[in-house]
């Protein structure tokens, strides 16, 4: 089965063609970073308009790269949510219209399910079940994954997502957008130990009660950075030192929660995906942790950590193969919990 995937949920236009026998045949990405940079963050209406301009030309390029024509496709997958409403509607309307014109089925993919399954595009992919840490600009989730659509959320952020904390901290430090790569870059020249930030909600005693102690909070970390910045001469070295202390704190929190969730679930595999999983410090830390525990950790290639069309083509292929179809009428779901997805047989 050959599936075209379209991702337009935020500020990246991603298009890819996945073939169940041959693997990934083509993937193209157009990043809107330059467009939004001067505003210090994503401007939703500009994002939608740019997706309108870029998606069809990218689909043409992807078809060329794959050496195939629309007649060779068996289905179209597009990101149906969660994300920016206008941006999602561009992908949904194009995906649904092309499917009708080309006489193939269409399926609307959950953006976080796309991230969740992205390590399966790599050689030696993880099998079910596994523990998943999904870390992006909009979500911080720990999930017990038993199969396709069989997801139980074990913990999530009660305030800012971890990627959002990277972005806000970078803005505070004058490092620009997107913040994650900028913080990671600045942290490379940081002096360890000059600043130390809290590890919010990692104290188990404070988490007793209704929750299992696997929820996250990142807004306090951002406030700690605001306090540190106040009263400092903001030299490039101070920025680097704060960036390093922030990155260490964020990575520590994620690693502590993963350790706890692995112990509680007895999971033997850890899957880490979403934009923040591109972070090298996080990768090294979780690799070390899993090595100590004698278990495997799986990441997408860094290019597929952040938003891309390949993960949507792949998730769409699994959903289409399981018989899912979108009716002719379609919508987009700016808010959509991954637990609401139907369970399906992933083969
Ligand atoms: O998955 P993604 O591309 O889009 C969403 O679904 O949100 O994730 C984007 C987030 C942004 O907050 C960005 O700052 C963060 O991922 N990010 C990183 C890195 N690369 C991207 N955070 C930390 N380190 C990185 N290297
Ligand atoms: Zn994403």
Automatic annotation (TrEMBL):
PROSITE patterns: GLYCOPROTEASE (PS01016). It is found in: Cytoplasm. GO terms for cellular component: cytoplasm. Its EC number is 2.3.1.234. The keyword Transferase applies. One of its GO terms (molecular function) is iron ion binding. The keyword Acyltransferase applies. Fe cation binds at residues 111, 115, 307. Substrate binds at residues 134-138, 167, 180, 279. GO terms for biological process: tRNA threonylcarbamoyladenosine modification. Its cofactor is Fe(2+). Residues 24-314 form the Gcp-like domain. It catalyses: L-threonylcarbamoyladenylate + adenosine(37) in tRNA = N(6)-L-threonylcarbamoyladenosine(37) in tRNA + AMP + H(+). Keywords: Acyltransferase, Cytoplasm, Iron, Metal-binding, Transferase, tRNA processing. It holds the Pfam family TsaD. Binds 1 Fe(2+) ion per subunit. Required for the formation of a threonylcarbamoyl group on adenosine at position 37 (t(6)A37) in tRNAs that read codons beginning with adenine. Is involved in the transfer of the threonylcarbamoyl moiety of threonylcarbamoyl-AMP (TC-AMP) to the N6 group of A37, together with TsaE and TsaB. TsaD likely plays a direct catalytic role in this reaction. Belongs to the KAE1 / TsaD family. This is tRNA N6-adenosine threonylcarbamoyltransferase.
């Amino acid at each position: 089965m050959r599936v075209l995937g379209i991702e337009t949920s935020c500020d990246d236009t991603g298009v890819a063609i996945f073939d169940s026998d041959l693997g990934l045949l083509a993937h193209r990405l157009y990043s809107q970073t330059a467009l939004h940079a001067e505003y210090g963050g994503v401007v939703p209406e500009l994002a939608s308009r740019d997706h309108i301009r870029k998606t069809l030309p990218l689909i043409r390029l992807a078809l060329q790269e794959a050496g195939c024509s629309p007649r060779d496709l068996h289905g179209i997958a597009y990101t149906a949510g969660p994300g920016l409403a206008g941006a999602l509607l561009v992908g949904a309307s194009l995906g649904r219209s092309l499917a009708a014109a080309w006489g193939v089925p269409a399926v609307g993919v959950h953006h976080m399910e796309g991230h969740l399954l992205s390590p399966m595009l790599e050689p030696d992919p993880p099998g079910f079940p596994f523990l998943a840490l999904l870390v992006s600009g909009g979500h911080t989730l720990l999930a017990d994954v038993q199969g396709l659509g069989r997801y139980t959320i074990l913990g999530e952020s009660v305030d800012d997502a971890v990627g959002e904390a990277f972005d806000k901290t970078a803005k505070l430090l004058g490092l620009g957008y997107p913040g994650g790569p900028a913080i990671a870059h600045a942290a490379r020249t940081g002096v360890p130990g000059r600043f130390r930030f809290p590890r919010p909600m990692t104290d188990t005693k404070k988490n007793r009660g209704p929750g299992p102690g696997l929820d996250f909070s990142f807004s306090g970390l951002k406030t700690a950075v605001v306090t540190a910045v106040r009263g400092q001469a903001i030299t490039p070295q101070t920025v680097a030192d704060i960036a390093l202390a922030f990155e260490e704190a964020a990575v520590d929190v994620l690693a502590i929660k993963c350790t706890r969730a692995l112990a509680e679930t007895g999971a033997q595999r850890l899957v880490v995906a979403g934009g923040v999983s591109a972070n090298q410090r996080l990768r090294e830390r979780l690799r070390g942790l899993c090595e100590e525990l004698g278990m495997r950790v799986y990441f997408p290639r860094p290019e597929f950590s952040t938003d891309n069309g390949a993960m949507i083509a792949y998730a769409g292929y699994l959903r289409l193969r399981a018989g899912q179809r979108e009716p002719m009428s379609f919508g987009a779901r700016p808010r959509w919990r991954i637990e609401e997805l139907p369970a399906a047989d992933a083969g």
